[in-house]
Amino acid sequence: MIDLTTIWALIIAFAVLMYVVMDGFDLGIGILFPWFGVGEERDQAMNAIAPVWDGNETWLVLRGGGLLAAFPLAYAIILPATYPLIIAMLLGLVFRGVAFEFRWRDPRHRAFWDLAFFSGSLVAALAQGITLGALLQGIHVEGRAYAGGWLDWLSPYSLLTGAGVVAGYALLGACWLTIKVEGSAEDKAFRFARLSAFATLALMAAVSLATPFLAGQYFQRWFTEPMVFWLTPVPLATAALAISLLRSLQQRQPVRPFLYALGLFLLGMIGLGVSMWPWVVPQSISIWDAAAPERSQVFMLIGVGLIMPLILGYTGWAYWVFRGKVGTHGYH
To answer: Which membrane topology term applies here (predicted)?
Structure first.
């Protein structure tokens, strides 16, 4: 049955997916940045995301704000459990944001700003991945409050998911660059895309194999009848997309690799949703337990209904205006 709480869970899931897809590729470019040559290659890589990177982070605000407004109890539990990761992510995003501006305006210290762009991107991506692992492995809750320690999020599993997100973002970034850059930068983009594709697929497989053994709920969801029959298409579709991705990269197709990579992330999100549903804090707090009062949900839904089309509209317009290849000084 679809109710207001379920609708809000879907809205936040959509915001998470949009953030991962849209900010994921520009974080991925930052992760790959040191391996591009100083000068024209790095300038092209930076220009490929300069017009859109700050708009991409709108979805991060919507995700965090939506969680606070629609599921305040979950917000009050998840944030204390992951404070070090959230702080690290925000600092990383600040560093890379400053690097975008100062890299062009302070050429004497460009090497420093390039390092800030890379390190900020890496830290933000790693923090997001570890946060995902910490959430999936479970948060210690007592009396509707976080009851764990400062480093409960740190585990081999959360480090594995962290590495998986870093590799996945690098894949998205490299595939985006195959569309946007030219010359030697394009050759490197295809090479990095192939390497990051193998790393992403290997880490996706490792996380997928490890997750069902974190909790009985996950195992039952994936490996008991009749769910096992309903969910079999998910890994099969993932394998088909993986083959298509590697083949398109081998053939140096400029657009399809990015679309296939997006498909892999979408299937990954579906897998996570299947595993977690209906828990917003796995095994502790369901979406209905954490939901705000119905009047609050209705009021916020009206606001989202007005704002979401505007966000999608100006995002689509920005990507349309800045379509095409980039040069060292801008689009052409």
So the answer is: Multi-pass membrane protein
